[in-house]
């Protein structure tokens, strides 16, 4: 009879890697057209014909590659969060414009979480968004610092998108 012993640290590292892989798989490029996967039910409320992300203030604050990672991750996260309201090319739909102002990658844990701030505009309505994501450091993060930071920015983009969805009224 064989016995498998898994330490808490190995379990946490494995689950963290799985979560990072899941989040990084949601990336899409900023210039990618909105995908239409067949006829979607007519959304109730607001309609989004296109998504535009402006990362110039973020580039001035954080520089690259952080600003580029956020600009690459956010359109895909917004498409995932707001999918029912996205109607590509619909003349009655508005453009969702997001200006990313800052990204702060904290020291880790709930005492110093990662934060992303920006302003979304849809049909003249401005919505300030302050997203938070908690990062727990792992030993592999020291070896793969750039990949770890990109995963943290991706997690912030997802948090930002779902918080915006809640503020828009689902």
Q: Can you walk through the features of this model?
A:
The model is unreliable at 27-33 (pLDDT under 50). This protein has helices spanning 8-24, 56-62, 66-81, 139-143, 145-168; strands at residues 48-54, 94-104, 114-122, 125-133. α1 packs across α5 (145-168) and α3 (66-81) runs parallel beside α5 (145-168). By secondary structure, the chain is α+β, with helices and mostly antiparallel strands. β3 and β4 (125-133) form a beta hairpin. The chain has a single domain (46-168), classed as Double Stranded RNA Binding Domain, CATH 3.30.160. The protein has five helices and four strands, in the order αβααβββαα.
Tell me the fraction of residues in β-strands, as a range: 15-25%
Number of domains: 1
Major sheet characteristics? 4 strands, mixed
Task: Evaluate the radius of gyration.
Answer: 18 Å
User: Which CATH-level-2 architecture?
Assistant: 2-Layer Sandwich
Q: In terms of per-residue confidence, which ranges show pLDDT below 50 for 5 or more consecutive residues?
A: 27-33
Strand order of the largest sheet: 1-2-3-4
Q: What fraction, in percent, of the residue positions are helical?
A: 40-55%
**Average pLDDT reading:** 79
Overall form: elongated
Question: What's this, in brief?
Answer:
The protein is α+β, with helices and mostly antiparallel strands and 170 residues long. The chain has one domain: Double Stranded RNA Binding Domain (2-Layer Sandwich). The longest helix is centred in the last third of the chain and has 24 residues.
Secondary structure layout:
Layout: H1 8-24, E1 48-54, H2 56-62, H3 66-81, E2 94-104, E3 114-122, E4 125-133, H4 139-143, H5 145-168
Parallel strand pairs: 1-2
Antiparallel strand pairs: 2-3, 3-4
Helix pairs in contact: 1-5, 3-5
């Amino acid at each position: 009879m064989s016995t498998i012993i898994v330490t808490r640290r190995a379990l946490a590292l494995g689950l963290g890697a799985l979560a990072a892989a899941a989040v990084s798989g949601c990336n899409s490029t900023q210039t990618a057209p909105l995908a239409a996967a067949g006829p979607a039910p007519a959304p109730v409320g607001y309609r989004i014909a296109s998504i535009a992300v402006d990362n110039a203030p973020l580039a001035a604050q954080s520089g690259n590659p952080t600003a580029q990672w956020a600009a690459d991750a956010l359109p895909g996260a917004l498409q995932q969060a707001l999918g029912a309201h996205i109607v590509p090319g619909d003349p009655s739909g508005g453009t969702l414009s997001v200006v990313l102002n800052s990204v702060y990658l904290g020291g880790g844990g709930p005492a110093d979480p990662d934060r992303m701030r920006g302003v979304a505009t849809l049909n003249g309505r401005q919505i300030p968004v302050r997203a938070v994501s908690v990062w727990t450091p792992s030993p592999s993060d020291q070896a793969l610092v750039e990949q770890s930071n990109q995963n943290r920015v991706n997690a912030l983009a997802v948090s930002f998108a779902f918080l915006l969805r809640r503020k828009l009224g689902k």
